Amino acid sequence: MLTEMAQMSCDDGMVMQLHAGAWRNHNEILFNRFGRDKGGDFPTQTNFTAALKPLLDRLGSRRDFLLIVFTLDESTYSRELAPLAGHYPCLKLGPPWWFHDAPRPCCDSGDGAPSRPVSTTRSDSTTTPVHFYRFPARHDLARRIDCAYLAELVATHRLDEDEAGEVAVELAYRLAKSAYRL
Predict the structure, then answer these.
(1) d(Cα 181, Cα 47) in Å, to the nearest integer?
(2) How many CB atoms neighbour CB 162 within 10 A?
(3) Chain-centre distance for alpha carbon 112
(4) Is 18 helix (H, G, I), strand (E, B) or coil?
(5) Where are the alpha helices (DSSP H) in the chain?
(6) Which of 74, 94, 111, 141 is most exposed, with the fewest beta carbons within 10 Å of its own?
């Protein structure tokens, strides 16, 4: 079914998003009292490598297919998704700060992405209406983490300052625009 939905996104010229690896609204008391999207989401194991294989076999190298994958499982992000995104042109990684509102987990997740932070496998700067109230804070956190990493690369002479400025624009603007074909 997922592969058929992916084919339909190609037919319609749409970008497909997959939000997997989450047990939504786990805390039943919190959910019953306040409703959904109140912080009761927890990571579950997802075998992306096996689960996405049929879809990637069929559409993974097509230029008209684009899949952005999000997960709550930070170990899966670097162990499975980053290598898959480095290999298949259609696959982009949802931002690691999607599921972490603290700097350390964001850094830990991002370090696993290929060629971080200049990786074109990242979509960055994306969210959903459910998270609009957190949107500015998350983007601010993500930009600060990316800029701190870029500053480290400049300080250790692995990147020139002008290159770091260009990468910052790429991360803050161009990756999301490209990922969503805007």
Answers:
(1) 28
(2) 9
(3) 12
(4) strand
(5) 2-12, 28-34, 48-51, 53-59, 74-76, 82-87, 103-111, 135-155, 161-169, 175-179
(6) 111
Distances (CA, A) of 151 to 19, 31, 147: 31, 42, 6
- Which among 138, 144, 132, 137 is positioned nearest to 95, based on CA atoms? 138
From CA 145, how far away is CA 106, in angstroms rounded?
A: 8
Residue type, 40: G
Cα 92 to Cα 145: distance, rounded to the nearest angstrom? 19
Domain ranges of the chain: 2-179
Task: For residue 145, give both structure tokens.
Answer: 């983490």
Looking at domain 2-179, its CATH class is: alpha beta
Which tens digit of pLDDT belongs to each residue from 20-59?
888 888 999 999 999 987 878 888 888 999 999 999 999 9
CA 42 to chain centroid, in Å, comes to 17
CA 54 – CA 3 distance, rounded (Å): 7
CA angle at 53 for the pair 171 and 14, rounded to the nearest 5°: 50
User: For position 20, what pLDDT does the model report?
Assistant: 87
Q: How far apart are CA 20 and CA 73, in angstroms?
A: 9
